[in-house]
Amino acid sequence: MNKFSRLLTLLVLLSPLQVMSEDTQNQSENSNHAEQPQFGGPDSPQGQFEEAHRPKSPAFRFPILDSAFSDWKPFKAKLDDEYGLKFGGHYSTMYQTNGDDNGWGGNFRLNLQWTVIGKDTATPGYFSLLVDNRHALGRNGAPGTFGKFGQYGVTATQFGDFDGNFKIITMAWNQRIDKDTGYIIGSYDPNDYLSVQGYVNPQTTFSNVNILLETSQALPDTAWGIAAGHWFNDSVYVQGGVTDANGYGGDGNVFFEGGAEFFKWVHLGWSPTKGDRYYKNLHIAAWHTDEREDYGQEAVWGVSSAINWTFNDVFMPFAKVGFSEGDHDFFNNTATFGILYKVMSRSDFIGIATNYGRFANGHKNGLGGESQISSELFYNFQVSQHFAVTPSIQYIDNPLMSDVPENAETIFGVRARVDF
């Protein structure tokens, strides 16, 4: 049986969906809302703690796997209670192939949060540290390399290669001023806050960066800066920030090496309640990047809008559109549409989405007027409390970085993750 057949068989075997009563799911989600970040998205350091602590109903029970964590959780809870120290992480691996090429990579992540002041109050101050070791496995490189399989973008987000090194993704001070207002200062990833929707977690949902992020933006990365947010009431909030326009996650946290060149952003959102921000949200965002002299990029700006809405605690359709003016590394016009379906009798969910991206006419990268469509289907199968497997299929129409004149690429993948 070839690789395509094995992966297709796995997708079919994992696809049956079941539904249970809304009451059970409501109780589960309500328990999550208390731990939701004040402003960050699901992939922010605080969002990852929320995901790790979320009650799960796996398809199977593996006493050996689950019992391995029986003493671990009380130990972590004791550290949090006595010292305000939270920590966790995961090891995940992803394999992708299009039949001619393949990539296999791993991601070892450590997540630390130390509440220094105001523990168990409405105004805590805490230090957050997120460290990744992203590495290739095998001889054909990591699947998260930009342009691999011909797509303009990344088909396996967070599965690049740091050459065996640990890199700091977040190192910042977080402060709540009151129950409605907070800020972060230090080295952080603006993509954890700007234009974020409730499905954006490359470790549990989609893997394609064009679907996960708003790729009409001159995508910022981990960099030194500051951001703040404020809830005007229980529904309307605003966020904004400034970071080093030249920073990225693999630069060793170099401090403004390119000088005073900034990425600035603002995000205005609405949800029925604060606790619904992941599940029911409408927002608009605007951004501007200064001219990056050493990089040879002109000043660019853009706007975007997005909505996601959960119906009956089962279906979450989402959509977003974006526009940018000026030449930068990503698209000038984008549109993304998709849906998530929760398997309510288990902690499984299935997702499907499509992204359209187009460069403006005359773009300096030689792709002016060209467009690309990226689609992905995945099934996140929660095998046990701490172990999940996610098979996926991606279809790239008109892959703009293909070495051969291909009209399309089909990419099969599987991701496995153990959290601790």
UniProtKB/TrEMBL annotation:
Cellular component GO terms held in the UniProt record: membrane
Residues spanning the signal sequence: 1-21
Alphabetic keyword roster: Signal
Family annotation (Gene3D superfamilies): Carbohydrate-selective porin OprB
Biological-process GO terms, alphabetical: carbohydrate transport
Molecular function GO labels: porin activity
Highest taxon of the lineage: Bacteria
Residue stretches of biased makeup (Polar residues): 22-35
InterPro entries listed in its UniProt record: Carb-sel_porin_OprB, OprB_sf
Annotated stretches, region: Disordered: 22-54
Pfam families: OprB
Family membership noted in the UniProt record: Belongs to the OprB family.
Name used for this protein in its record: Uncharacterized protein
